Amino acid sequence: MLHPWYKSWQRTIFCLLLHPLNRKPHPQEAFFLFLKFINMSTSKYKHLFFDLDRTLWDFDTNNKATFSEMHEKFQLVARGISDPVTFYANYQKINFALWEAYKKQTITKEVLNFKRFYDSLSLYQLDEPELAREMGAYYIAASPRQTILYPGAIEMLDTLHKHYQMHIITNGFEEVQFIKIENSGLGKYFNKIITSERAGFKKPDRRIFEFALNEAEANVSESIIIGDDPEADILGAQLIGMDQIWVKHPPLKPNKGKPTYEVGHLSDILKILQA
C-alpha cells in the first residue's frame, strides 16, 4: 500500500508534468519524476539571464541570409562587387572593429551602422555614402526578421521556463533585439528584456548586470548568466560575482578565464540545471 504522503505527491506530479500526456503515472515512474521535481526545486538558481545573439539566436546564419538579400536588392554585382562571400567577410572585420569602439562608447550606434557599410563599399573604390545609409537602414529592418535559432533552443526554454524566472541581457540595439525576440517566438519565455541602451551600460560593464538584477528583483547568488562571449558575458558576470555558463558556439573567441560551467550544445544546459 502506498503511503498517503506519496499518493499526494504522485497526484501533484501528475498534475504538473504528466497531465499533457492524459494518463495516470505508473508508481515507479511517478517516484522518479518526484526525485527530478525535488532536484529542480532545490536548485540554488532562481533567475537565468540569457544572452541573445550567438547564444539563442543564430546571428551568423541569419546575417548571411540578410546579406544575400542585400546583394541582390542593391545590385552589388553591377557595382563591381561580384563575390558576396568576400564582401561579407570584409564587412565582418570592419563591423567587429566598429563594435569594439561602440562598446567603449567612442562612437554612436548611428556612426557604427553607417561606417560598417561605407567602409565595406570603400574597399571596392565606391564612395557612395547614400548607398551606405540605405544598406544600413535595410539591414536594421531586415536582419531581425530572420528567425533561425540554435538547435535545441526551444526545447531547452520549454523545459526551463517551468522552473525558473528567465531574462534576456543583450548589447544589441533596442529596436532590433525586440523584433528578433518576438519574430523567433522567444518572447513568451522571458520576464525581463534588458538592453544595453536602456541600462546605459554595455556588457562587460558590471553596471549593466547590477541594472539587470535590480530589474528582475534578483540576488546575484541565485542568478546565472548563459552566454557565448567570454568577455561580455563570462568576464562581465564574474566582475559582479554571478555564476556563468559559457555556450561554446563556433567560432569560439579566446577565453582567458575559467567559467563556472561550459557547454557545447544548448541541451547540455539542462544537465547543469537539473532539468
Class of the largest domain, according to the CATH hierarchy?
Alpha Beta
Arithmetic mean pLDDT: 89
Q: Which sequence of strands runs across the widest sheet? A: 3-2-1-4-5-6
> Percent of residues in beta strands?
5-15%
Largest sheet: 6 strands, parallel
Instruction: Give the low-pLDDT segments.
Output: 1-21, 37-41
Please report the total strand number as a whole number. 6
Tell me the count of domains: 2
CATH superfamily of the largest domain: HAD superfamily/HAD-like
Could you tell me the CATH topology label of the largest domain.
Rossmann fold
Q: What features would you highlight for this structure?
A:
275 residues, Rossmann fold, DNA polymerase, domain 1, 6 strands, globular, disordered N terminus
Describe the structure.
By secondary structure, the chain is an alpha/beta fold. The chain has two domains: 43-58 and 149-272, Rossmann fold; 59-145, Putative phosphatase, domain 2 (DNA polymerase, domain 1, Orthogonal Bundle). It has helices at residues 4-18, 27-41, 59-73, 84-103, 109-122, 129-142, 153-160, 174-183, 196-199, 206-216, 230-240, 268-272, and strands at residues 47-50, 165-170, 192-195, 223-227, 243-247, 261-263. Strands 3-2-1-4-5-6 form a six-stranded parallel beta sheet, with helices on both faces. The relative contact order is 0.13. Mean pLDDT is 89; it is low at 1-21 and 37-41.
